[in-house]
Amino acid sequence: MDGSPGAYSPHEARALFRDGLRTPTAGWCTGRTQANLIAVPRDYAYEVLLFAQRNPKPCPVLDVSEPGATSTTVFDGDLRTDLPAYRVYVDGKYADEVDDVREHWRDDLVAFLIGCSFTFEDALAAAGVPIRHVEQGRNVPMYRTDRACRSAGDLAGPLVVSMRPVAPDLVATAVRVTSRYPAVHGAPVHVGDPSALGIDDLDRPDFGDPVEIPDGELPVFWACGVTPQAAVMASRPPLAICHAPGHMAITDGHDTELVVP
Amino acid sequence: MDGSPGAYSPHEARALFRDGLRTPTAGWCTGRTQANLIAVPRDYAYEVLLFAQRNPKPCPVLDVSEPGATSTTVFDGDLRTDLPAYRVYVDGKYADEVDDVREHWRDDLVAFLIGCSFTFEDALAAAGVPIRHVEQGRNVPMYRTDRACRSAGDLAGPLVVSMRPVAPDLVATAVRVTSRYPAVHGAPVHVGDPSALGIDDLDRPDFGDPVEIPDGELPVFWACGVTPQAAVMASRPPLAICHAPGHMAITDGHDTELVVP
């Protein structure tokens, strides 16, 4: 690779991934919006979209493809090849991780691109809030809570949250900054007390890695994009295609477009 | 009626409408969110929801019912009787205006409650921005623009905007206040030049009434909830049930819940 990943355009990055580069996308294409991918058959699309409408914090939809289309308005690439890695689910069960899903794609697949916390982590860092899991070289820890999402047809499940430790004097900044990004999970759902969310042990996340909480910092919880993915898989669609964790869709959108005043 | 309409609870107001009172709902149930109603058969619901996702400014969805249900999470009344008046459309054509749609209701109807500008007009007035069409006792003027919405399947059409005159020294206030209400059309789409939107004559609105623009005030344009209604009717669903203009669904939600920081 020439240059730093942050300097690539989305077009350039997607070409590298299409040609076989397999890498997590954190830090790539600075300022461009990265997204979660969930593609399901058209018969399941209404429930996914309705689940998102009813649960906008964990499930902020950035764009929806036409059935069978391989690009969307905000993703001017090929959804089947231009992510660095994919996971394929059959009947809701994990079947395979691949870097090209052309052989799995169907004409009735509808792709949902869903906002990702990379966007607000960049904004937090720019506002002077350290991102501890990045400093520690780990994936963000995620937890199932005891809060149920509003269901939509067969789609149901608990709210899943991500956790980032924040110093008490920066909690207000963290709330203020992320509140302005409703399209990427928005303000925290909870500050300070894991047990109030039904989380017994911060050291044992349900997804991702545990993160060390520096002395005096508070655990702050945001709605997480794993929520809709878990709900969709529990409904057992015959086929679902998702990005592999951390290997996101790099869209042509700019993070700045997601800020509300 | 006892007392002022603003003092009624949503429960009380809906009971009066159910018992036959037929009145525009502007000024009723202060602080409670009023909504546009569009109910269509389940087969059309995905396209309506997708059109809304693709055009959030003119089509901010507050809630979606289960098929056939007569209430929703934010509307704890009977959608068939508890609005003061309804319009029934058959094959996309206006068929009847009634105050009870029980005989038209179907088990497969999905009701969409869509944000309404009453919410942000209250916020504008509270911030000291006069609402000229209210002062003049008229309906807000609405115009078809030359801007196309993003289509969703068969749903397509132009962006429809409402216009409110605002004094130059209050334009910034009007932008700032309405920006904070993305669930009710948000910030203006345009300030000052009707021709840039393809509007030839402000005195001849496509919907509503012309409003007199006080000397020196600028026409300010917001996305309008008529946009999705026009697109839905153009797609000719076999049945659609809407609120009659100005005779809104009074929900149990609070306007304050729609504010973003």
Low-confidence stretches of chain A: none
Tell the overall outline of chain A: globular
From the helix content, strand content and strand pairing of chain A, which structural class follows? alpha+beta
Number of domains of chain A: 2
Percent range for β-strand residues of chain A: 25-35%
Assign the CATH superfamily of the largest domain in chain A.
PSTPO5379-like
Helix-strand sequence of chain A: HEHEEEEHHEEHEEHEE
Overview of the structural elements:
Chains A, B: It comes from Actinomycetospora termitidis. Chains A, B: This is Putative hydro-lyase QRT03_27695. Chains A, B: Its EC number is 4.2.1.-. Chains A, B: Belongs to the D-glutamate cyclase family. The structure is a homodimer of 261-residue chains. In chain A, the strands form two sheets. In chain A, strands 1, 2, 3, 4, 5, 10 and 11 form a seven-stranded antiparallel beta sheet that branches. Chain A has a four-stranded antiparallel beta sheet with strand order 6-7-9-8. The first copy, chain A, has two domains: 5-116 and 236-256, PSTPO5379-like; 118-228, PSTPO5379-like fold. Chain A has six helices and eleven strands. The mean pLDDT of chain A is 93. Chain A is 20% helix and 26% strand. The longest helix of chain A is centred in the first third of the chain and has 13 residues, at 42-54. Chain A has helices at residues 10-18, 42-54, 118-126, 132-135, 171-179, 226-234, and strands at residues 32-41, 61-64, 86-90, 93-98, 109-115, 142-148, 158-166, 190-191, 218-223, 239-243, 249-254. Chain A is α+β, with helices and mostly antiparallel strands. The interface between A and B is medium-sized, with 18 and 18 residues.
